[in-house]
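Record type: ASSEMBLY
Status: queued
Input:
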Amino acid sequence: MTKNLGIVETQQITCFERPNSLTLKSGLKLGPITIAYETYGTLNSDKSNAILICHALSGDAHAAGLHKGDKKPGWWDNMIGPGKAFDTNKYFIISSNVLGGCKGTTGPSSINPETKKPYGLSFPVVTIKDMVVVQKALIDRLGIKKLHAVAGGSMGGMQALKWSVLYPDSVNSAIVIATNTGHTAQQIAFHEVGRQAIMTDPNWNNGDYYDKKPPSTGIGLARMVGHITYMSDESMDKKFGRQLIDKERVGFDFSQDFQVESYLKYRGESFVQRFDPNSYLYISKALDYFNLSEEKSLDVVFQNVKANFLVITFTSDWLYPTHQLKSMIKALKINDADVSSCEIKSSYGHDSFLIEADGQSDLITNFLKKESK
Amino acid sequence: MTKNLGIVETQQITCFERPNSLTLKSGLKLGPITIAYETYGTLNSDKSNAILICHALSGDAHAAGLHKGDKKPGWWDNMIGPGKAFDTNKYFIISSNVLGGCKGTTGPSSINPETKKPYGLSFPVVTIKDMVVVQKALIDRLGIKKLHAVAGGSMGGMQALKWSVLYPDSVNSAIVIATNTGHTAQQIAFHEVGRQAIMTDPNWNNGDYYDKKPPSTGIGLARMVGHITYMSDESMDKKFGRQLIDKERVGFDFSQDFQVESYLKYRGESFVQRFDPNSYLYISKALDYFNLSEEKSLDVVFQNVKANFLVITFTSDWLYPTHQLKSMIKALKINDADVSSCEIKSSYGHDSFLIEADGQSDLITNFLKKESK
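Status: finished
Output:
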């Protein structure tokens, strides 16, 4: 029987204190770095039951349970808890906000200790690798030598992949969901529309808006585009179809006529209340820069990988379609990695990884069981 | 052997002079209406060889041939000319700019005779039906009782469909390419992003910008989104992949890194030079309002249709995918219409209707031959 976690709290630690700053992939140094994280369940005595959950573009450390006073639980509450896919009766679940984020981990809205003002655009551009290096510092601080699993969807899947390659001895297994090994031209293109929308908003002010009006319009447009790519043609038709806001008639003007229009506009406009536009720039750039193979072929990249892999994709996910991971699965198999892959039938598009708890739970429960033998 | 048309010119006529203004679908009246059009080939003595070509969102009357001094021919020059799919040795081709457009037909940038200033947002919202009614006035003026064919891709296909339903006795055959019988939630959503981008650009000024700076940023963003939807994942990967602008390295900043980014930004920024942002609003709204079935089912809508149909779609067109026209083909067949349909294999996405001349030409040449028996 599944239960919910109840009240949870976000915690913070600080690493990479100067002079031990982190040297980023760009070559620039950053420190100190505060990491916001949550944990659910209990770490066992030999510290072998830890699972790291990695979030997507607009996610945060609050993956499950309720914050005091909130009615809405964490973003993967349907997957994390007692008796759920990531079973907190068995596992110690860790979820942290990524480097560059805006939910407690150091990012462009954090105070730069040198200037005592928010970093803004003086914050260095970070990569998925940098995010993973910071997560490793958290895992080290918690005294965990090896993760039972690292798991995530979308950008979270990229982090899981990077973990398996960067720290092969620290990852038992990787659960890689609805993602890609490197952003395609189309994936980059949709992000660049979002970035241009933010950066051409006069309120963006070259990233210096923390004591002024934020670029709400720009990030609202970025979020509208994002939402379209996260849903499927079918899920949008099921949810909205051509339903009108005013059931009687269209307005024959440029106010909004269709429910899909007002939904997207509302979701866009309200996004700025929970997300920093500069973080959107930094994190989307990290996604676009991500390319697991870079100069080497994937066959070579995976040579030292020791983890077992569970790869999940969804039939209606046109942003990260199944076929894009075929060459990765092949490259893993060439390297004798244990890989299970499954394409789940779902109409929810890319959002399926957040919604399709049932389909994913059985796969994950069994995969985690196998690995803990 | 195919040849090019050489130099062509856009002509204009004016209809719906007051008090004989056009009553639009909205109930509002509009007049006078100037129609910009081009013709290629020669009208035969019994005026039975005329084919009307209908353009898409950003198209115009200049479908083929060269304007004096230009190097780039009309948008369907690969399809229209001596020996081509629409063979000007046989047929008299007519192409007109749609109502609401900005290339010579009355639209929001036209001078309102009452105020002597551009209409701007005082221009009434128009529909695909209104566009077709205006085209009919042009055909009447040219003394043509029945079109040998009406043809178009994307929004042009919607016009062809509307012609077949609205004027069943005036259309021998309809060539309907890469379109839909009514915009889906996803199709509406992408347009609404573009409209919001234009209308939130401070230079838009509620549509009143004709003596000021136009909303270039807004329409640029709208065009960037549009371009992504017109291409396919595959064609973007073939054309750009992850190629960098500076081959040496990424910039680790928010200038553009990837060629796909600079291509889209350039195409977006240059669009305002050839297209009026208000026309973009009006025409995209007409597309979103289009719903051939409205209260009736398609079976009933097609009851009086007399035309023969050629329906063409493309495998990689994810904006107007093949499956969306299945129920239309069924409804036509239920009404004993002669329907040929073909899905052409192409990697160019929605743009295929502009690019894949070879695949389309054979189908169209044969279809037009059959109908002229």
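Annotation: Chain A has two domains: 11-183+292-371, 188-285.
Annotation: The first strand of chain A starts at residue 11 and ends at 15.
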